[in-house]
């Protein structure tokens, strides 16, 4: 199992910390921005995938997240981890992307437009198993999905999840419990229906 | 795999499949080509270094999408106006017999006085009309109402709100809904029939009585009434879940017969910041038994603590939950909530007793580490470093240590230092190596500076 790059401890001697990279980015250091991007982009991509951003929109959504990160670097005070801060931005970005999709879909329906052609399959969509998981996650409420994804897929500690979700830790546990129960129940139903 | 025991028995193929799917989701990372493409786009943000320079490339990239969105919105608005214009002249102010249409969402049509016939609204359509005698009716989406020759209304499906002018002495206005008669003197109320033909009455003003062969309920403003399930022979056995609405229940009588509705109403009451009402609804649910009852019993504690500031009552509620559901699904949550509440309410002894019970009784719980850490903190606060050390070691030995790892590691080291244990300094250094920018870095450095023996001697 890959350790998420956001959570991987970085030895101080060899690799600059996030705080150092942020400081260098503020001074206009191109290399630092590249390093910061490469360190966090894979996780943002995975996180957005798990939150239901479809493959054809993921790179757009990632771009939006990193643009927002870059624009806000001056406001990053280091009170929370940079990763927590990026997760928050990404979660909001995913919410906006999903909302935009719903609006576009509604408009297309109202204006009787042809639906867009299906996108090319993403090489990261490795299996039908993953597609089934995405379908099940789609049926969870956004709040439960966010908590489940952060805990089970991003493997973040609960105190960080609480900061990202903007709720008390106990609420995180409660949402997680319900999300797991619903997911397991849906998986069972789905397996029963499958031929 | 990251401990997905919650998915079920490890030998269960569905649980195993779900666990594998989560494993795959953890590895859903972009390939190198995608990553390079992503960088090429993210580099636009930099645009030479200064954040102010971001706008040009971003705007260039986004302009067509915005244009498409605005065009779409304008087209929708034009379509909505066209529909409204198209619908308006089709309904003269003279009495209307039957009207059946569909219209886009949020279109509301006003009709003049309406005579005998059936009125229906399509999906997303709303209709406001006046009945004989000046009663105003407002049909929500997908509703149907029959009006008889005398101007009396019968709700056939969906939700309809009525505003009835005050009736002369000795007269009342009656609306039929399935086998029930809703009798009013002058009021505002709404009636709804769900897919299972259950009838719901909400009163906003005045007094309403619900009758079949006898009077069933008398409702005051803010109260609601719901019929028992399936009042008619052809109703489905399992009523469809209705949408959440902010409603009040006068008493735990017939209004509380549908568990889903009551639960939804309780959640709506919470959302509307009306904890007392939510509490009453959850207490009704507790009487029903089943999974909803269990959840309600737990929620009562949460409302008492978080919404009503009554920690002692909250703890009592969760203890009742434990007594009623010793192996309940929310047992762990209840135990943890009790511990947290006791800690915050300033009852460390009670919290410690609960925490010790928890660690003893839940050897496999994924929250064991967290609670052992809390027990360690409580022992440490009272200066019992030996027991605190044991508690932190239990936390660290737990396979699900996760967010308890950092505090437990540091405080374990601190306890060793305070007990003048020779391994304390090394444990503190190990903490600093693992979390070089950790939450307790300053304290750890201070501990090391003060020296092992000297530190203990100063205490």
Write the layout of secondary structure elements.
The complex is a heterodimer of chains A (195) and B (459).
Chain A: H1 18-26, H2 30-50, H3 55-72, H4 82-110, H5 128-138, H6 142-153, H7 158-165, H8 169-193
Helix pairs in contact in A: 1-2, 2-3, 2-4, 3-4, 4-7, 6-8, 7-8
Chain B: H1 13-26, H2 32-46, H3 55-87, E1 107-113, E2 117-120, E3 125-130, E4 136-139, E5 144-147, E6 153-164, E7 173-177, E8 180-184, E9 187-193, E10 199-205, E11 208-211, E12 215-219, E13 224-226, H4 259-271, H5 275-288, H6 290-307, H7 311-324, H8 331-344, H9 348-361, H10 368-381, H11 385-397, H12 405-418, H13 424-434, H14 441-450, H15 452-458
Parallel strand pairs in B: 1-3, 6-7
Antiparallel strand pairs in B: 2-5, 3-4, 4-6, 5-6, 6-9, 7-8, 8-11, 9-10, 10-13, 11-12
Structural descriptors:
heterodimer; A: mainly alpha; Rna Polymerase Sigma Factor, Chain: A; 2 domains; 8 helices; disordered N terminus; B: 459 residues; alpha+beta; Jelly Rolls; 13-stranded mixed beta sheet; 13 strands; 47% helix; elongated
Low-confidence stretches of chain A: 1-13
Topology order of chain A in helix (H) and strand (E) letters: HHHHHHHH
The number of strands of chain B is 13
Instruction: Determine the structural class of chain A based on helices, strands and strand pairing.
Output: mainly alpha
Give an overview of the whole structure.
The complex is a heterodimer of chains A (195) and B (459). Chain A folds into two domains: 123 residues, RNA polymerase sigma factor, region 2, helix turn helix motif (Rna Polymerase Sigma Factor, Chain: A, Orthogonal Bundle); 70 residues, Arc Repressor Mutant, subunit A, CATH 1.10.10.10. Chain A contains eight helices and no strands. Chain B is α+β, with helices and mostly antiparallel strands and 459 residues long. Among the domains of chain B are: 81 residues, no CATH class; 146 residues, Jelly Rolls (Sandwich), CATH 2.60.120.1440. The longest helix of chain B is centred in the first third of the chain and has 33 residues. The C terminus of chain B is likely disordered. At the A-B interface, helix 2, helix 3, helix 4, helix 5 and helix 7 of A face helix 1, helix 2, helix 3 and helix 8 of B.
């Amino acid at each position: 199992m890959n350790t998420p790059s956001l959570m991987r401890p970085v030895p101080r001697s060899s690799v600059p910390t996030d705080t150092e990279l942020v400081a260098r980015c503020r001074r206009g250091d191109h290399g630092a921005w590249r390093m910061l991007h490469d360190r966090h982009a894979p996780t943002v991509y995975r996180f957005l995938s798990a939150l239901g951003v479809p493959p054809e929109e993921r790179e757009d959504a990632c771009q939006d997240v990193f643009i927002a990160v870059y624009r806000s670097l001056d406001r990053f005070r280091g009170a929370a981890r940079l990763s927590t801060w990026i997760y928050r931005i990404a979660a909001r970005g995913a919410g906006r992307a999903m909302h935009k999709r719903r609006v576009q879909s509604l408009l297309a329906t109202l204006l009787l437009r042809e639906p867009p052609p299906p996108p090319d399959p993403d090489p990261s969509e490795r299996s039908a198993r993953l597609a089934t998981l995405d379908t099940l996650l789609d049926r969870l409420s956004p709040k439960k999905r966010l908590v489940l994804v952060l805990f089970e897929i991003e493997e973040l500690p609960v105190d960080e999840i609480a900061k990202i979700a903007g709720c008390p830790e106990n609420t995180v546990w409660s949402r997680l419990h319900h999300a797991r129960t619903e997911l397991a129940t849906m998986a069972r139903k789905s397996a029963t229906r499958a031929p | 795999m990251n401990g997905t025991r919650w998915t079920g028995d490890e030998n269960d193929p569905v649980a195993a499949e779900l666990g594998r799917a989560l494993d795959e989701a953890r590895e859903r990372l972009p390939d190198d080509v995608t990553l390079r493409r992503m960088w090429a786009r993210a580099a636009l943000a930099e645009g030479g270094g200064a954040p102010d320079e971001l706008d040009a490339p971003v705007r260039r990239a986004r302009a067509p999408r915005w244009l498409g969105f605005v065009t779409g919105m304008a087209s929708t608005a034009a379509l909505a106006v066209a529909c409204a214009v198209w619908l308006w002249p089709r309904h003269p102010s003279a009495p209307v017999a039957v009207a059946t249409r569909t219209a886009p969402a949020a279109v509301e049509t006003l009709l003049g006085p309406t005579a005998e016939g059936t009125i229906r609204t399509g999906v997303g359509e709303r209709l406001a009309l006046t009945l004989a005698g000046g009663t105003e009716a407002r049909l929500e989406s997908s509703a149907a109402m029959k009006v008889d020759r005398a101007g009396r209304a019968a709700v056939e499906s969906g939700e309809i709100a009525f505003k009835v002018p005050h009736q002369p002495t000795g007269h009342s206005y009656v609306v039929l809904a399935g086998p029930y008669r809703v009798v009013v003197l002058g009021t505002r109320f709404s009636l709804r029939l769900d897919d299972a033909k259950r009838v719901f009455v909400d009163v906003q003003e005045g007094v309403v009585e619900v009758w079949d062969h006898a009077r069933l309920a008398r409702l005051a403003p803010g109260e609601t009434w719901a019929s028992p399930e399936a009042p008619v022979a052809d109703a489905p056995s399992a009523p469809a879940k209705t949408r959440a609405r902010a409603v009040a229940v006068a008493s735990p009588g017939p209004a509380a017969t549908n568990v889903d509705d009551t639960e939804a109403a309780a959640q709506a009451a919470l959302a509307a910041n009306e904890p007392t009402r939510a509490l009453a609804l959850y207490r009704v649910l507790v009487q029903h038994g089943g999974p909803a009852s269990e959840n309600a019993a737990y929620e009562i504690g949460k409302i008492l603590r978080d919404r009503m500031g009554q920690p002692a009552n909250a703890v009592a509620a969760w203890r009742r939950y434990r007594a009623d559901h010793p192996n309940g699904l929310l047992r762990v949550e209840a135990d943890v909530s009790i511990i947290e509440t006791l800690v915050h309410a300033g009852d460390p002894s009670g919290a410690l007793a609960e925490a010790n019970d928890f660690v003893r009784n839940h050897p496999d719980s994924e929250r064991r580490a967290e609670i052992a850490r809390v027990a360690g903190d409580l022992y440490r606060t009272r200066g019992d470093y030996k027991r605190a050390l044991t508690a932190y070691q239990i936390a660290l030995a737990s396979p699900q240590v996760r967010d308890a790892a950092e505090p437990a590691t540091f405080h374990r080291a601190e306890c060793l230092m305070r007990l003048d244990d020779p391994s304390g300094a090394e444990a503190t250094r190990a903490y600093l190596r693992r979390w070089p920018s950790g939450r307790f870095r300053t304290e750890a450095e201070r501990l090391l500076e003060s020296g092992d023996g000297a530190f203990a001697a100063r205490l």
